[in-house]
Design brief:
This protein has a four-stranded mixed beta sheet with strand order 2-1-3-4. Helix content is about 50%, strand content about 5%. The protein has two domains: about 70 residues, Glutaredoxin; about 110 residues, Glutathione S-transferase Yfyf (Class Pi), Chain A, domain 2 (Up-down Bundle), CATH 1.20.1050.10. The protein is globular. With about 200 residues, the chain is an alpha+beta fold. The mean pLDDT is about 95. Bound molecules: glutathione. Glutathione (GSH) binds next to helix 2 and helix 3.
Length: about 200
Amino acid sequence: MKLIGSYTSPFVRKISVLLLEKGITFEFINEQPYNAENGVALYNPLGKVPALVTDDGETWFDSPIIAEYIELLGIAPAMMPREPKAALVIKQIEALADGIMDAALTSVREQARPVAQQSETELLRQREKINRSLDRCEALIREGKIEPDAVNLATIAIACAIGYLNFRRVAPGWCVERPLLVKLAETLFQRDSFARTEPPKA
Ligand SMILES: N[C@@H](CCC(=O)N[C@@H](CS)C(=O)NCC(=O)O)C(=O)O
């Protein structure tokens, strides 16, 4: 199996963590989707990472679909429940976490533009999405709808989103008044799968 991705992408990290947690061996093909010369479109016409190429030569994207494909392999431990409605609840939380990643990525891209061209309105819009979504995650833990100690698609996606906020210093005060999310992140970050997929320091 080949995972096409970049070490800085939180979506790629989510998939790497899932594969590592299940003990599935894979080859990492490092592609930088924002570099002028990159081969990502060979695997995904949208030009986005991650993409997964199976041993049978099938190619899958984007990350929620890849996550579902990995689960279909039936390799323990399960990362989502078998019951369809319960699985949908986990996937809804994954979508929330992916949305935080999207908003953080949009902010990073905006801030990479020359200062005079940056839109404060756009940056604020993205910050509000992140804050609302983090509040929702905190509430879901408080209500017992997310188990902060569990290792599943929902908690992995949330921890990857928070890891990306920390890495890019987006919403640096995210942890203030969100103690349950802090606990979730601290728990997941201790796992070998997270240690092995930390984004590069530089
Ligand atoms: N919805 C996609 C989002 C993936 C995504 O946005 N990846 C970024 C890297 S973090 C990317 O490849 N961007 C390249 C581009 O938008 O051209 C997924 O879940 O896989």
